[in-house]
Amino acid sequence: MELSVDCLPGSPRRGAAPVVLIVVLALVAIGAGVALYLNWLWSRQQTAPPALTEDARFYVRNGFLQLSEVEMNAKENFAQQTLVEITGKIANAGNRNVQLVEITCVFQDAYGQVVLRERLPIVGARLGGLKPGETKAFRLPFDALPQSWNQTLPQLVIARIVFG
Predict the structure, then answer these.
(1) What separation, in Å, do the N-terminal and C-terminal C-alpha atoms of the chain show?
(2) Full residue range of the structural domain in which residue 41 is found
(3) What is the residue-wise DSSP string for 26-93?
(4) Are residues 131 and 63 in the same domain?
(5) For residue 44, is pLDDT > 70?
(6) Which of 22, 34, 69, 160 is buried most deeply by CB count within 10 Å?
(7) What is the reported pLDDT for 130?
(8) How far, in Å, are 23, 46, 94, 130, 134 from residue 35 at the CA level?
(9) Count of Cβ atoms closer than 10 Å to residue 33 Cβ
(10) Can you tell me whether residue 141 is helix, strand or coil?
(11) What percent of the chain has pLDDT over 90?
(12) Which pLDDT tens digit goes with each residue over 57-92?
């Protein structure tokens, strides 16, 4: 009677090498995916949005862009989520055509700590420009605000102006 070494307890199996190879390749693929994702996150953090130009700072400092009738309302949407809307008007009291205005909304918690900073256009190509002497309404919807938000109107800061 002849015994095969493959059948003895504790002997290595023939199919073990491909399984180990598959596990190693899967771990390498997962590691590469994590590295690519972390690199993507890092690159997004490094690209800061453009700052106000000197002309834009002058326009803001001298009150040529004016926000008025700013209100905040909350209502539930069809998915039972709370939708917070900030509405208001922006007026161009200066003498230049404005193609784009971006505003940063700064939401804080009960301790005054920033919990969300969101930058959105209120004047733009899709929304139309803003001529001297013109006033336009704007609407900023938010459907995913942090639970820690203090439920008060966020700070609104003009973050970017492009003249036309």
Answers:
(1) 95
(2) 5-46
(3) HHHHHHHHHHHHHHHHHHHHH-PPPPPPHHHHHHHHTT-EEEEEEEEEEEE-TTS-EEEEEEEEEEE-
(4) yes
(5) no
(6) 160
(7) 95
(8) 18, 17, 49, 44, 49
(9) 10
(10) strand
(11) 59
(12) 999 999 999 999 999 998 887 777 788 999 999 999
Tell me, yes or no, if the pTM score tops 0.85.
no
CA distances for 92 relative to 33, 68, 108, angstroms: 48, 11, 28
Residue 53 tokens read as: 């130009």
- Provide the Cα torsion 29, 30, 34, 36; round to 10°: 20
Q: Return the pLDDT at 156.
A: 95
pLDDT at residue 18 in the model? 83
Q: Give how far the C-alpha of residue 23 lies from the chain's centroid of Cα atoms, to the nearest Å.
A: 36
Do residues 31 and 100 share a domain? no
pLDDT at position 82 is 82
- Residue from 163, 92, 72, 86 nearest 120 by CA: 86
Residues 138 and 82 in one domain: yes
State which amino acid sits at residue 113: Q
